[in-house]
Every structure is written in structure tokens, then in C-alpha cells.
Automatic annotation (TrEMBL):
Full protein name: Bifunctional RNase H/acid phosphatase
Residues engaged in binding substrate: 412
Organism: Streptomyces azureus
Bias (Pro residues) ranges: 191-201
Bias type Low complexity, positions: 176-190
Residues at the active site: 360, 436
PROSITE patterns the record matches: RNASE_H_1 (PS50879)
Segments forming domain RNase H type-1: 1-140
Pfam families hit by this protein: His_Phos_1 (PF00300), RVT_3 (PF13456)
Family annotation (SUPFAM superfamilies): Phosphoglycerate mutase-like, Ribonuclease H-like
Signal peptide: none
Residue ranges, compositional bias (Basic and acidic residues): 300-314
Entry GO CC: cytoplasm
Length: 556
């Protein structure tokens, strides 16, 4: 099933006054502009012009593919909220327009997102071109429009596909370059984006490229705005953006980096800390095998050697002499397959199951940096934690993309989920498989206290995912098995939908690790804050795409 992005805008010089609209239809997988539409509509209000722009964009998308799904982005809060069903349509003049828009595609096939005006420049320029043409006594003509070129020029050298989509596209390009390099030791620059496509035909509606234009990119990919709208944040995400990041994610460089960072016994250097969870994240962020540093300060110290190790191998690949080009290309190809496979899949793969992963808000144990798993006192949220949950709820309500909520059975997650559910008007389902790891006898202790009382058990736990915490707790390997089974169950239940999973540090990090195909020690290398948002999308062919990690912008 194809997916289109529709951006629409309308304006009135006088409100009411001379008015016009603009609309753009682009391919969600590639960002390629497929159609533009604009029209001067005479005297009207801003809101009427905005609705007319929406209608034009949806109709153009329907003409391209009546079976597609559509994500509409507009800077009109009124239109987005009314078409999402959250606001009533009181103005009698807009009810017929909204009804017409709702009939173009079947229910459930169109989603809506509010975006700032600066992210809607293409449609805004089209609307102004239409009003300018009306002032001259003319109608807008695609053959004379410069809206797309002006928008790209104004954005500088920004890849029009957006951050995450551009990252996936660059990964696909890296795969192509890798194949070429294997044969000829040369290939296209994987960082190069597509050239702007100039207007090609006159008329009030313009089509570019047609169905074949995006075939190379693959309809299974999703745009950065897909990634971000699921989590409810703007597109500052850089998770999959750079080729070097993609390369490091899937290539042998990770293995070399992990070995370089490993201390005695295979424990990553500087890690006593970054361990997967305490809610282990808070406790174990401290120091390595030797000494315990204040947890608040240790994070940056623990990250420093890790960063050197992680990036060293990737930089070595980038700077390697010609003789290693083929090996580098092979690494790129492996990374591209791991990250960008959805873009190579058949067009009928359908919409992914998108998991918006929310770590619960703070509890009284969180600032004390104590192990808090599923075998302890099961604390509730603190006042700060409830405020964090309210902020997350406000963000998700603004975006309006969550279709279901599933929570871990523990009190802190159920309370967080309840606050959000009340705001979104949804019910909460409880899934036992989303519970936190059981930390056994370590529950309620700080990392330093565990090191003092159970040093051998702690060292074994840090060195192996199969080791259990003292007293018969749950190993990370056992947690991963449980989480994988829960993931598969939820993917089957929520195929093609966006679901909020309210859970804990270890389950979220494990879902991310499994999505990336990363080794168990990667749990030690992720930061996950209280009430943070992460996003993973799961496709019908079994591939997954990490779209967001540890976003806390809603808390600032």
C-alpha cells in the first residue's frame, strides 16, 4: 500500500478578502513531489481557504492512488483538530467542506498532524502564488510556479526526504554503491541527495514522476515525519540520519569497538554504569570495574571511552586507503540491509505496526538511583513523575496519532498510562510481558551497595547477559526472550496501527537492541530517561526501523 504526504495551506488577504490555497502531494518513502495544486478562489476567509487546500490535496492523492494511505500536515490547528474529530465544527460554512474531505478516502486511511508554519513553506508559497495570480486577474499556472525550487533554496542543502527517510535512502544508496565498489572500486556518493525535479507540465494540478518515479526507493519506507509524528515530536531526530551512523550500526566496526571498549572479563570499559537498567539505567550509569563515581557525573565519563571506541572503527573505515574500499562497501551493504530493507520490500507490504515506547515517570526511587524492577516494592509515581506523565500526555494529545495504549502491570507504568489515557480518551490494556526485569536481592539497593554486598555476582552480571542477579533474579537473556515474545504478540494485535507501550528501561532498550540486531552489550550504551519517548516500526516482512530514541523535548 502506497503512502502519500499531503501538505496544504490557505490564506486570505483581509480575512475575508482575496484568498487562495496551495497543496502538495509527495511520496512518503522518498519525499519526491508528485503533484502540486493551487487556486485563487476569490473573497473568502483563511479557514475556508485552508479547507479548500486540504480538499485539493486529498483529491490529488486520490487520483494518484485511491488505495493509498495519506498523512496530512497543515499549520492550521483548527483544520487538523476538526478533521481529527477532537474539535467540533461550529461554522456552518465549513461543515460541508469538512464532510467533503472526510469522504475522499475511507475512514482510518487519513491521519492529520499540525506542523509549524516554517515546515509548511511549500504549500504556503503555492497559496501566495495563487493569490498573486488572482491580483493580476489570472489563475495560478504550474508552468510558471517556482514554489518547490524556492522552498528548497530557502532550506539550503536539506535533503527533501527528511532526516529519517533521507537516512534510509542514503543507506539504500550505500548498498548500491557497495555493489558497484565490489565490481569496480568506485560508485556514487551515498550522501548525495536527489536533484530537484523541475516543473514539467502546465495546469492547475501538476504530476511529477508518476508511479515509476519512486520505485527505486521502495514504498515500504516511511518518512521522518512518520517517525516523528508517532512519537509526537518535530523532526530534529537524527537516529538514522548519517551514513556513518548506519554503517556503525550494522558493520563489523561495532564488534571491533565493543572489543576495544571491553575491560577484563568482557565488561565494557567505563560501564559499570551504562548497564541496561535500574531501572537500572539510573543506578548503573556509574563507573567501571574499579570504583564507584557519583551517578550524576559518571554518565559523561562512562561515555567518553565508549565514544572513542564506537567512532574509531567507523572513522577508520572512512579514512581507509583504496585497498580497503571493498571491505568498507561490504560493511555499508550489511548496514543498508539491516536498516533500509523496508524500502526494498514490495509496495503492498502495508503500514507498519508502530510502537511508541514511553518509559514511566519518576518514582521516589528514581532520583535515589536504586534498582527498581518487578520483584521489589512496586513504587508509584512521585509528584515529579506525575507531572512528567501529564507533559507526555499533552504532547501525544497534540499529535493525535496514538490509537491504543498498552501498559506493563507495575504501578508506575499503569499510573503513567492512566494519565495519558484520560487525556486521549482511550482505554489501557495491561500486558505482563512488558514488566521490568526482576533484580532479585538487588531490588531497592544502589549500585554501590550491590557492589559492596555482592561483588562477584555483580561482575558476572556485567560480563554476561546469561548471569542472574543475586537471589534468583532475571537475566538479561531471559528478559530478551520474554520481550521478543511480547513484541511478536503485540505486532500481530496492532498491525498497521500506532500503539503506545508504557513500560520500563530494560524492555525499551531490549526492543531497540532487537530492532537494530545489536549485541547484548549494546544495552550498556543507551541512555533512557524517565518519561522519555522512543519509537520502533515493525513491517510485515519482519524488518524493523528505529525511528526515535530517548526524546525528552516535552519535559523541557
Amino acid at each position: 500500500m502506497r503512502e502519500f504526504i499531503v501538505e496544504a495551506d490557505g490564506g486570505s488577504r483581509g480575512n475575508p478578502g482575496p484568498a487562495g490555497y496551495g497543496a502538495v502531494v509527495s511520496d512518503a518513502a522518498t519525499g519526491e513531489t508528485l503533484r502540486e495544486a493551487a487556486e485563487y478562489i476569490g473573497a473568502a476567509t483563511n479557514n475556508v481557504a485552508e479547507y479548500r487546500g486540504l480538499l485539493a490535496g486529498l483529491r490529488a492523492a486520490h487520483e494518484l492512488d485511491p488505495g493509498a494511505t495519506v498523512h496530512v500536515r497543515m499549520d492550521s490547528k483548527l483544520v487538523v483538530e476538526q478533521m481529527s474529530g477532537r474539535w467540533k465544527i461550529k461554522h456552518p460554512g465549513m461543515r460541508p467542506l469538512a464532510a467533503d474531505a472526510a469522504r475522499i478516502f475511507p475512514p482510518g486511511r487519513v491521519t492529520y498532524e499540525w506542523i509549524p508554519r516554517e515546515r509548511n513553506k511549500h504549500a504556503d508559497r503555492l497559496a501566495n502564488e495563487a493569490m498573486d495570480a488572482g491580483a493580476r486577474g489570472e489563475q495560478w499556472s504550474a508552468s510558471t510556479s517556482t514554489a518547490e525550487l524556492d522552498t528548497r533554496a530557502g532550506a539550503g542543502a536539506v535533503d527533501p526526504r527528511g532526516d529519517a527517510a533521507a537516512g534510509a535512502a542514503r543507506a539504500r544508496e550505500a548498498l548500491a554503491a557497495g555493489r558497484a565498489a565490489s565490481a569496480t572500486s568506485a560508485g556514487p556518493d551515498p550522501e548525495a541527495g536527489p536533484s530537484p525535479v523541475p516543473p514539467s507540465a502546465p495546469g492547475a494540478t501538476e504530476q511529477r514522476g508518476g508511479d515509476g518515479a519512486s520505485a527505486g526507493a521502495g514504498a515500504g519506507s516511511a518518512t521522518a515525519d512518520d517517525d516523528v509524528r508517532a512519537a509526537g515530536v518535530d523532526a530534529e531526530v537524527r537516529v538514522a540520519g548519517a551514513d556513518a551512523d548506519v554503517r556503525a550500526a550494522g558493520a563489523d566496526a561495532d564488534v571491533r569497538a565493543a572489543k576495544a571498549a571491553a575491560g577484563p572479563g568482557g565488561v565494557p570499559a567505563g560501564v559499570g554504569a551504562a548497564v541496561g537498567s535500574v531501572e537500572a539505567d539510573d543506578v548503573v550509569r556509574v563507573a567501571g570495574a574499579g570504583a564507584d563515581a557519583p551517578a550524576a557525573e559518571a554518565d559523561s565519563d562512562a561515555r567518553a571511552p565508549k565514544a572513542d571506541a564506537d567512532h574509531g572503527a567507523a572513522e577508520a573505515d572512512a579514512d581507509a586507503p583504496t585497498a580497503t574500499d571493498t571491505a568498507k562497501a561490504d560493511a555499508d551493504a550489511r548496514a543498508a540491509k539491516a536498516v533500509a530493507t523496508p524500502g526494498w520490500a514490495p509496495a503492498d507490504m502495508g503500514a507498519p505496526a508502530t510502537f511508541v515506547l514511553l518509559r514511566h515517570g519518576e518514582t521516589p526511587l528514581t532520583p535515589q538511583k536504586r534498582f527498581s524492577g518487578s520483584g521489589g516494592t512496586d513504587p508509584s509515581l512521585s509528584g515529579i513523575g506525575r507531572d512528567q506523565a501529564e507533559r507526555a500526555a499533552a504532547l501525544l494529545a497534540r499529535r493525535g496519532t496514538i490509537q491504543a495504549i498498552v501498559s506493563s502491570p507495575l504501578a508506575r507504568t499503569r499510573e503513567t498510562a492512566g494519565i495519558i489515557a484520560a487525556r486521549l480518551g482511550l482505554d489501557v490494556s495491561v500486558e505482563d510481558g512488558l514488566r521490568e526485569t526482576d533484580f532479585g536481592a538487588w531490588e531497592g539497593l544502589t549500585f554501590a551497595e550491590v557492589r559492596e554486598r555482592h561483588p562477584d555476582d555483580l561482575n558476572a552480571w556485567l560480563a554476561s547477559p546469561d548471569a542472574e542477579p543475586t537471589g534468583g533474579g532475571e537475566s538479561f537473556a531471559a528478559t530478551a526472550t520474554r520481550i521478543a515474545a511480547t513484541r511478536d504478540k503485540l505486532i500481530a494485535a496492532y498491525t498497521g496501527r500506532t500503539v503506545l507501550l508504557v513500560t520500563h528501561v530494560t524492555p525499551i532498550k531490549t526492543l531497540v537492541r532487537l530492532a537494530l540486531g545489536a549485541p547484548p552489550e549494546s544495552l550498556f550504551r543507551m541512555e533512557l530517561s524517565a518519561a522519555s519517548l522512543s519509537v520502533v516500526a515493525y513491517y510485515a516482512d519482519g524488518n524493523a526501523s528505529l525511528r526515535l530514541l530517548n526524546d525528552t523535548s516535552h519535559l523541557r
